[in-house]
Every structure is written in structure tokens, then in C-alpha cells.
Automatic annotation (TrEMBL):
CDD domains: Mrp_NBP35. This is Iron-sulfur cluster carrier protein. ATP binds at residues 34-41. It comes from the Archaea. Binds and transfers iron-sulfur (Fe-S) clusters to target apoproteins. Can hydrolyze ATP. Belongs to the Mrp/NBP35 ATP-binding proteins family. The keyword Manganese does not apply.
Length: 307
């Protein structure tokens, strides 16, 4: 285990803000929840793939170091990260619809390997995933986070200091969840991440036998939670056995091409986010102009000149 190295060339992420490393990413979103197992990773992966289906350039950073699941959901568990010898940077795995993916899972010897690291190493790994990865120009970078408001969300928030455009808060429809959502909103505000909105997962059950939708916990809970908390409601995703099957088989991308109610719900969340950040997504990324380096440099002359 101890031989897993995240940073490359022995050079770890520099101290301080890493926001500059993601200058060519138009919109940065994190998925959070105060509670485990509510569907954060599903939402991250589904929104990421959905945006890619709509033609956006998407990256997904799996920020769950102890329980990485993004590669499994995207069906890319057999892939590996490599370092480009020219740039010295980590090249993300190319997933379905060209989505760029980085996860600690790609560095583990087997999918059953546990990462037994203290918080400082997790912090370092997350910072390396921002600064040592060649994310390139992206429209959207989605960051999947572990449950709660601990080390990982804090590291991401602090490393990008005010550079995160929004948090997607995932909940399930129950009173206990409502309280946890309020905590997640409080966390988001404290670390200066605007709340993009709430996604209610497992809002209801779509019966495979008759296609009917059953609201097991009552209808509209997610919307009410959002209204009470004063944050936007992005939409809901039913508990769907067909979705579950596709997730287990790493075929979420295939599921999203089907014509059914659950896919419509997911794509409406995708569209809500795309229109929320439409202005940013429309903006051109100002690529750094290549710098001309004079080979005839005389002492005292400027080393680099813009074009
Ligand atoms: N709407 C849904 N329909 C069917 N299965 C679902 C749905 N949402 C989530 N699941 C399944 O529930 C499990 C938990 O989902 P997921 O891993 O996305 O949750 P999580 O919040 O990321 O969990 P953790 O807190 O452990 O990171 C997964 O096996 C996923 O496939
Ligand atoms: Mg998860």
C-alpha cells in the first residue's frame, strides 16, 4: 500500500491556492452531502456524462480517496493513469463520451485494496489531482466528494479558494436528510462555495412490472427541503432497478442513451445546471499566448516577451 505515489517527479503540489491550475476550466462543481450512500457519486457521474452528451467538455475528479467509485460507475476500472514524459503531468483516463477521469482507484493494485492513509496524505493526493494533472481546457469539472464535511471537502474548497462555482447537494427524501442537507448548505456557505442546488435522489420507485411511479416517502420532499433552505431545487432521480443494473455493470453511459422517465429526470438536472452556468459556459477560455523566448538574449534583457 505504502508504494502508492500520487505526486510525480517527487514534486508535490505547491502550498497555497491551486486555482491557477484550473484556469482553463470554465465551471467547477462539487457534489456533497452530509450523509453517505445517498447517490453523490451517481449524481456526479450522471451529470458529468449528461453534460458530455450535450456536447460539453467534461472532467471528473474522484475526490473520494478512501472509497473511490467513479471509475466503476463509468466502466473504466481497468484503465491507468500515466505521466506524459514531455509535460511531466498526469494524463487523465478518457472515459465514455470523452469524459476525462482521475481517481486514486487507477493507482491501486486491485479494486479490493484499501487506502489506509492519514488525513495529511489524503490532502496531498487531492491537491496533486488538481495541480499535477493535465486537465486541459474543460467546460465543466465535476468533483465527487466523500460523505460529510471533513478533510476532503475542506481541502478542495481551500485549495481552490473561492474558485468553485457551485455545490450540488444530494439528498434522499426524509426528515433526517433535511437536517443533514441544512448542514451541507451551512458547510458550503462557510467555505464560500455557492450552492448550485439540491438533487433529490431516490425520490420515488419506478416499478419494473407496471412502469408506475411510487412515492414511498411522499411526493415533493426534495422540493420542500430546498424551499425551506432557500436554495434552488435542481430535480429528482427515481430509484430505478434498470439504472441500478447499469450502474453495477459500469454502463451508466448506455443507460443515458435510453428513452425512459429516469433518463428524462437526469437530463433535466443536467439542463438546469447548463442553463444556470450558461454565461460562463459561453465564455471563451483565454488560452495563454505562447511565449517567445529569445535565443539571442543579452544579459539584462527580458527573458520572455508576449506575442
Ligand atoms: N436512483 C437510484 N436508483 C438505483 N440505484 C441507485 C440510485 N442511486 C444510487 N443507487 C445505488 O446506490 C448505491 C449508492 O450510490 P452512490 O455510490 O452514488 O452513493 P454515494 O452518496 O456516493 O455513497 P458514498 O457516501 O459511499 O460515497 C450505489 O450502489 C448506486 O448504484
Ligand atoms: Mg460516493
Amino acid at each position: 500500500m505504502s508504494n502508492i505515489r500520487v505526486n510525480i517527479r517527487g514534486g508535490a503540489a505547491p502550498p497555497g491556492s491551486l486555482a491557477d491550475y484550473l484556469k482553463s476550466v470554465k465551471v467547477k462543481l462539487v457534489t456533497i452531502s452530509g450523509k453517505g450512500g445517498v447517490g453523490k457519486s451517481l449524481v456526479t457521474a450522471a451529470v458529468g456524462l449528461g453534460l458530455a452528451l450535450r456536447g460539453y467538455r467534461v472532467g471528473i475528479l474522484d475526490g473520494d480517496i478512501y472509497g473511490p467509485t467513479i471509475p466503476k460507475l463509468l466502466g473504466v476500472t481497468d484503465s491507468a493513469l500515466y505521466v506524459d514524459s514531455k509535460t511531466g503531468k498526469i494524463v487523465p483516463v478518457s472515459g465514455p463520451f470523452g469524459v476525462k477521469v482521475v481517481s486514486i482507484d487507477f493507482m491501486l493494485p486491485s479494486e479490493d485494496t484499501a487506502v489506509i492513509w492519514r488525513g495529511a496524505l489524503v490532502t496531498q493526493a487531492l491537491r496533486d489531482f488538481i495541480s499535477q494533472v493535465d486537465w486541459g481546457s474543460l467546460d465543466v469539472l465535476m468533483v465527487d466528494l466523500p460523505p460529510g464535511t471533513g478533510d476532503a471537502p475542506l481541502t478542495i474548497a481551500q485549495s481552490l479558494q473561492g474558485g468553485i462555482d457551485g455545490s450540488i447537494i444530494v439528498t434522499i427524501p426524509s426528515e433526517i436528510s433535511r437536517r443533514i442537507v441544512v448542514k451541507a448548505i451551512d458547510f458550503s456557505r462557510k467555505v464560500q462555495i455557492p450552492v448550485a442546488g439540491i438533487v433529490e435522489n431516490m425520490c420515488c420507485f419506478v416499478c419494473p412490472d407496471n412502469g408506475k411511479t411510487y412515492y414511498i416517502f411522499g411526493e415533493g420532499a426534495g422540493k420542500r427541503i430546498a424551499e425551506k433552505a432557500g436554495v434552488p431545487f435542481l430535480g429528482q432521480i427515481p430509484m430505478d432497478p434498470l439504472l441500478s443494473k447499469h450502474l453495477d455493470e459500469g454502463k451508466l453511459h448506455e443507460f443515458l442513451t435510453l428513452d425512459n422517465g429516469t433518463v428524462k429526470h437526469i437530463m433535466s438536472i443536467v439542463d438546469a445546471l447548463a442553463s444556470k452556468y450558461a454565461d460562463k459556459l459561453r465564455q471563451e477560455i483565454k488560452e495563454e499566448k505562447p511565449k517567445r523566448i529569445s535565443l539571442m538574449k543579452l544579459p539584462g534583457e527580458d527573458e520572455e516577451q508576449g506575442e
